[in-house]
Structure formats: structure tokens, C-alpha cells
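Journal club side-thread
Mid-discussion, someone asked how the predicted structure for our own chain would compare to the paper's figures. Pasting it here so we can look after the session.
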Amino acid sequence: MNAFADAMAVLVADPNLGTDAVYRRGGSGAPVALRVLRSSPDRIADAFGTEILSATDILSVAIATLPDLAAGDSFALGLDLLTVSHAERDASGTAWRVLCQR
């Protein structure tokens, strides 16, 4: 492990930052319990000259916990079911940045 992986482990373990999640490959695979960091920023998009505000969900997931991830996979966080639309590794190779849709 490196310093970035150690920091990620501390952040997801923190009860004020990390949250419990259940991951399923393809949305219906075997459940995997893990902890993630969740942010839900609002995004403004333009559609035909009209601004549209849409909620988004971005998860940070340790690669050591979940080495493989793809579009169509899902995460259940409490009552919210999030489907992966895109996942990318961070520069250090420590965490996934996962863009999800509800």
C-alpha cells in the first residue's frame, strides 16, 4: 500500500465521510459489501437554450476493495440504487471515480 491507499482507507472508514454500500456486477451479480465516499453535486446543463439542473452521484471506491468496475454495475446505498454510467481510475491508481445515475 502507498500513502494514497492508506488515506483512502481512513476516509472510507470515517463514519462522517464514508457510507456502507452493496455492489453488484451487472446490477444483479453476487452482492459485495463495501464502504464508499459519496458526493452528490448538482450539474447545470443546457438543453435548447434552457438551463437544466440535474442531480448527479459520484462515488469514490478503493481499487484495492473493488479491482474491476464497468458501466451497468450497481451500488445500493440505503434506499438509493445507483447504476454506474462511467468509471475512471484516479492518477495514483488508488481509487475509482464512479459516475452514477439514479
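Post-session note: The two ends are 33 Å apart (CA to CA).
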